[in-house]
């Protein structure tokens, strides 16, 4: 079997761009993958075009060897743009191999550990009674783990975000949420790396013990030592890693005990080939995976197969607004949410089918908001 074509589709689907990748073979078997580098899809598509030049004619069954060649085939190896491209191709290759052998992808990863993959959801509403009502609705449908909203101020419109104001308001409502929802709820919050060490420490110190079960990405991740300093200031568990583009980025966070949940993104870290290495490493340190899953049904399917194949797993991220209204016009076959979990599929490959005619829409340039402080300085979106 040989690869004869690699197609990338940077297209607008629903409310955002997605970069889907199709790898075709001379036996008529094809596979689908997805890149996770949101907002810079054309850059990843360009990398895929470079890889296509020498991947055509190669054997897709040798997916581990091809991963190494993709990673090592340039002097300036690594980085999120390259590994996002490698991820999409790696997922597609696993889809092909699963179909060739007539087995689900998780069988290629060691077999199934669980029959369903539990999820955590995120309250979309602003702080107030609406957020608490949404959390109660999650619990009524059996979803007991979720991220609560935080005071984003005007950040999503490119406006003002003042960390000190945000954390003060967030702390008040998180305390009310714990009092309202009780100890059965697993409560977390994602600050999207918008705070510094001191602000995060102050925020955690505003909260009574066991207000939060996890705090996700409070500061930027480039400097593990900063997280270590923060770790000494608070006992709130951290969930880190959705931006990591390799096992090497995970290395200090796992080895030094900085993170308590590994937010691995199978569409960014390097596909199944790399994600399974991170999972084994995390298992050796008693750390569960809590995968990042913000994209489309291909990312969800890949994350479900990953979640099925590893013993150390907590919850898979789910966007309920998207999951409750599946886009069957584009993804005619997909894994759909049932109650508080995704059932592990038994179809060969990923269990995804895509209508390519629906991918002919024009790419839309989309730029994340560029928020700022009141003094005019830029801050993180």
Describe it.
36% of the residues lie in helices and 15% in strands. The chain is an alpha/beta fold and 381 residues long. Strand 5, helix 6 (163-181) and strand 6 (186-190) form a beta-alpha-beta unit. Strands 4, 5, 6, 7, 8, 9, 10, 11 and 12 form a 9-stranded mixed beta sheet that branches. The model has no long low-confidence stretch (mean pLDDT 94). Helix 2 (63-72) runs antiparallel to helix 3 (80-101) and helix 7 packs parallel to helix 8. It folds into 2 domains: 3-106, Enolase-like, N-terminal domain (Enolase-like, domain 1, 2-Layer Sandwich); 110-345, TIM Barrel.
Q: What is the compact description of this entry?
A:
The protein has 381 residues and is an alpha/beta fold.
Topology:
Layout: E1 3-13, E2 16-25, E3 30-35, H1 41-55, H2 63-72, H3 80-101, H4 105-108, E4 116-122, H5 129-140, E5 145-148, H6 163-181, E6 186-190, H7 197-205, E7 214-216, H8 224-231, E8 238-240, H9 247-255, E9 261-262, H10 271-284, E10 288-289, H11 297-309, E11 316-317, H12 320-323, E12 341-343
Parallel strand pairs: 4-5, 4-11, 5-6, 6-7, 7-8, 8-9, 9-10
Antiparallel strand pairs: 1-2, 2-3, 4-12
Helix pairs in contact: 1-3, 2-3, 6-7, 7-8
């Amino acid at each position: 079997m040989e690869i004869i074509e690699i197609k990338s589709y940077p297209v607008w689907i629903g409310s955002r761009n997605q970069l889907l990748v199709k790898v075709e073979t001379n036996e008529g078997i094809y596979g689908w993958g997805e890149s996770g580098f949101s907002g810079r899809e054309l850059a990843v598509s360009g990398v895929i075009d470079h890889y296509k030049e020498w991947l055509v004619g190669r054997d897709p069954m040798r997916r581990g060897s091809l991963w190494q060649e993709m990673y090592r085939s340039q002097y300036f190896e690594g980085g999120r743009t390259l590994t996002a491209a490698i991820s999409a191709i790696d997922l597609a290759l696993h889809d092909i191999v699963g179909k060739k052998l007539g087995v689900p992808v998780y069988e290629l990863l060691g077999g199934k550990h669980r029959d369903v993959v539990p999820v955590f959801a995120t309250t979309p509403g602003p702080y107030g009674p609406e957020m608490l009502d949404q959390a109660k609705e999650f619990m009524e449908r059996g979803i007991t783990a979720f991220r609560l909203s935080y005071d984003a101020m005007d950040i999503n419109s490119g406006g003002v975000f003042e960390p000190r104001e945000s954390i003060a308001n967030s702390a008040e409502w998180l305390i009310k949420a714990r009092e309202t929802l009780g100890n059965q709820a697993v409560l977390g919050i994602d600050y999207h790396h918008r705070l510094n060490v001191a602000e995060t420490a102050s925020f955690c110190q505003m909260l009574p013990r066991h207000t939060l079960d996890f705090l996700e990405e409070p500061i930027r991740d480039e400097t593990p030592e900063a997280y270590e300093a923060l770790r000494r200031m608070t006992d709130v568990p951290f969930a880190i890693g959705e931006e990591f583009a390799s096992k090497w980025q995970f290395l200090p966070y796992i080895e030094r005990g900085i993170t308590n949940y590994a937010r691995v993104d199978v569409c960014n870290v390097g596909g199944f080939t790399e994600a399974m290495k991170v999972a084994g490493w995390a298992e050796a340190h008693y750390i569960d995976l809590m995968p990042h899953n913000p994209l489309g049904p291909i990312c969800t399917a890949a994350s479900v197969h990953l979640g099925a194949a590893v013993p150390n797993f907590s919850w898979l991220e789910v966007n309920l607004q998207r999951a409750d209204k599946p886009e069957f016009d584009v993804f005619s076959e997909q894994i759909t949410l049932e109650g508080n979990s995704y059932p592990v599929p038994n179809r060969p490959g990923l269990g995804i089918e895509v209508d390519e005619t629906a991918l002919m829409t024009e790419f839309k340039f989309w730029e994340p908001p560029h928020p700022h402080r009141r003094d005019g300085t830029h801050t993180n979106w």
